[in-house]
Amino acid sequence: MKQSISHKSASRGISDHGWLHSRHTFSFAHYFDPQRMNFGALRVLNDDTVAAGMGFGEHPHRNMEIISIPLKGELRHQDSMGTTAIIREGEIQVMSAGSGITHSEYNHQSNQEVQFLQIWIVPNQQDVTPRYDQISIRELEKKNDFFQILSPNPSDQGVWIHQEAWFHMGILEKEHSTTYQFKNPDNGLYVFVLEGNIKVDGQELSDRDGLGIWETTEVLFESVTHARVLLMEIPMNF
């Protein structure tokens, strides 16, 4: 039987450090809720806003797939593999921390804030060789349909990670309906609304609301207004 769990935007954890304002869908740092530790292999979904010229200093990670999706502005990335890069709105970044990596992320601009999603996925392999990748997703965009931006397969469209997960984005015009078909019927789907109002299997969602759905093979989307959504199909048992 199809099951779901709703996380309204206002129910998320809050961190405000002055230079950083973050909303946490799942437990992270000083925000802890034992009922909101993860959705399957989706461990972290942070909605971060970083002040001009500020950022996260060098810090370590291990055995986690870390995805960043800028929504506004530019991020400057540096890591212990020697990578230096600028990640912009319309791009996606992936970093497999694997056996260990250190990195920093700063707002590249001195006159405006940067907004981005920070997503952590628990990998299906431990201590892999760390790696970094980023691509533009603008040329992948499709109106009124879902387009893939991440998968488990290096040869597929988008970036790839060490997990049986698929990410899609959708840009839906007002009063348009479409269906998402699961890649793996044992997975769950976490829907995160970037903007707009939409019905997901009849449940109404708006800006920054999240909804997890599992024990099904397809999900119906009906846009109430123009909407942008991020879909994360994730293993529930890992």
Would you kindly provide a written description of the structure presented here, covering whatever features stand out?
This protein is mainly β and 238 residues long. It folds into 2 domains: 126 residues, Jelly Rolls (Sandwich), CATH 2.60.120; 96 residues, Jelly Rolls (Sandwich), CATH 2.60.120.10. It contains no helices and 22 strands. A 7-stranded mixed beta sheet has the order 1-20-17-22-15-13-14, with no helix packed on it. A hairpin with a 4-residue loop joins strand 7 and strand 8. The two termini are 21 Å apart. The mean pLDDT is 97.
Rg, rounded, reads: 17 Å
CATH architecture of the largest domain: Sandwich
CATH homology-level superfamily of the largest domain: Jelly Rolls
> Which whole number gives the mean pLDDT?
97
Structural class: mainly beta
Order of helices and strands: EEEEEEEEEEEEEEEEEEEEEE
The CATH class assignment of the largest domain is Mainly Beta
Lay out the secondary structure.
Elements: E1 3-7, E2 13-16, E3 20-24, E4 42-50, E5 55-61, E6 65-72, E7 74-79, E8 84-88, E9 91-96, E10 101-107, E11 114-121, E12 131-136, E13 146-151, E14 159-160, E15 166-172, E16 177-181, E17 187-195, E18 198-200, E19 203-205, E20 210-214, E21 218-223, E22 227-235
Parallel strand pairs: 13-14
Antiparallel strand pairs: 1-20, 2-3, 3-4, 4-11, 5-10, 6-9, 6-11, 7-8, 7-10, 9-12, 13-15, 15-22, 16-21, 17-20, 17-22, 18-19, 18-21
